[in-house]
Specification:
CATH topology: TIM Barrel
Helix content: 25-40%
Number of helices: 15
CATH class: Alpha Beta
Strand order of the largest sheet: 1-2-3-4-5-7-9-10
Order of helices and strands: EHHEHHEHHEHHEEHHHEEHHEHEEEH
Bound molecules: 6-O-phosphono-beta-D-galactopyranose
Strand content: 5-15%
Largest sheet: 8 strands, parallel, barrel
Radius of gyration: 21 Å
Number of domains: 1
CATH architecture: Alpha-Beta Barrel
Distance between the termini: 7 Å
Amino acid sequence: MNTTFPEKFLWGGALAANQVEGAWQEDGKGISTSDMLPEGIFGEPVKSREGISSIKDVAIDFYHRYPEDISLFAEMGFTCLRVSIAWTRIFPMGDENEPNEAGLAWYDKLFDELRAHNIQPLVTLSHYEMPWGLVENYGGWGNRKVITFFERYARTVFTRYQHKVKLWLTFNEINMSLHAPLTGVGLQKGCSKAEVYQAIHHQLVASGLAVKACHEIIPDAKIGNMLLGGLMYPLTCKPEDVFATLQDNRQWQFFGDVQCRGRYPGYMQRYFRENDIALNITEEDNAALSHTVDFISFSYYMTGCVTADSELVEKLKGNILDMVPNPHLESSEWGWQIDPIGLRTLLNVLWDRYQKPLFIVENGLGAQDKPDANGEINDDYRISYLNDHLVQVQEAIQDGVDVMGYTSWGPIDIISASKAEVTKRYGFIYVDLAQDGSGTLNRSRKKSFYWYQKVIATRGGAL
Ligand code: BGP
């Protein structure tokens, strides 16, 4: 294939504050939900951080080493870097009236460094974390007041970085709140479906208000949502399986429908009616929801299957989030099923549904990289994963889908979100760090580093 990607297509990588920065208590930063989940988003929250450490406390020390990392990204030819702002660096408890200047100043330095390398920042306002103070003192997103605190935070960073950041995202994988409520909406395990959906409603309202604020404060910026692109296939062609799959996909499409169309879809209203979920939605809420996103961003790692036969689900489930595995696909070491064509399908589905530009802001292969006798990492498996996915992005572009860019997940090894593992590596750049926290934190280039450099330089011609 020798068609190239459009010239304006953005190439780069994606990071999240709590998985890279470390410096968990530096410069006035407050404690976040991520700090209270030292074992990752599917772990148990600790009661207190007294005497408990987490690998995320130092992570890969991006807080101090970002100049070196950014120059390596520039060497690969990145034109875009997705990062998130840690809300707790700006409002340590979440409910202060005034922001923390030291936190604001650090992101100024980060954005200046990116600009010096001609790398455009794409900034997530909330990537899997919120101030713990808002969970303890207000009950997380279950409390309407959190909308106001979030809006204050969003307006603060839009105003401060209006000349430096022109691409924004509201909530990372907003649909994950259904599976990891503490990380998503600051609710404890065991909360009811009605509580989760009310908290999600508050978050959707806050997302709409952030879109409005962004358009007011930075008229030439674009702001998008961020979905976990969890495309599901029917396990068989039985009409029951096909319909169950349609419903299953609506678990993530619901968020996209509200954020792109500005209102709740009929299928969700039926679901709420039939499950005794009576949401408290005000007229102001509806006005906020009407501020729809400029583009859609999503993560894509795998697909799964759905069957209407609940006994079969019990027998077969085992993939992440209890999905039924696809018998036609291979899996990664972590059991994530590898499906490049699914990315082309998802891009087409999203484009057909919303007709808004799309941005792939996460995609990659988590693997245990082992240095060879010369200390080199020959990660051909990663190259082949990324290559096959990018070929499908190219196909989707040929299909007429408007794709803004591609930021691969974890361009440098980082701490994984699910289980806080450093052994699950995604990077083009290796970081010398072991799970017990030992290591020099030195950076080195893997084979995939040179491969990605060539792909970017040839705008996909080298795929
Ligand atoms: C997404 C998250 C990221 C990230 C990635 C890979 O769900 O947005 O934060 O970490 O998945 O997951 P993991 O780190 O668990 O391998």
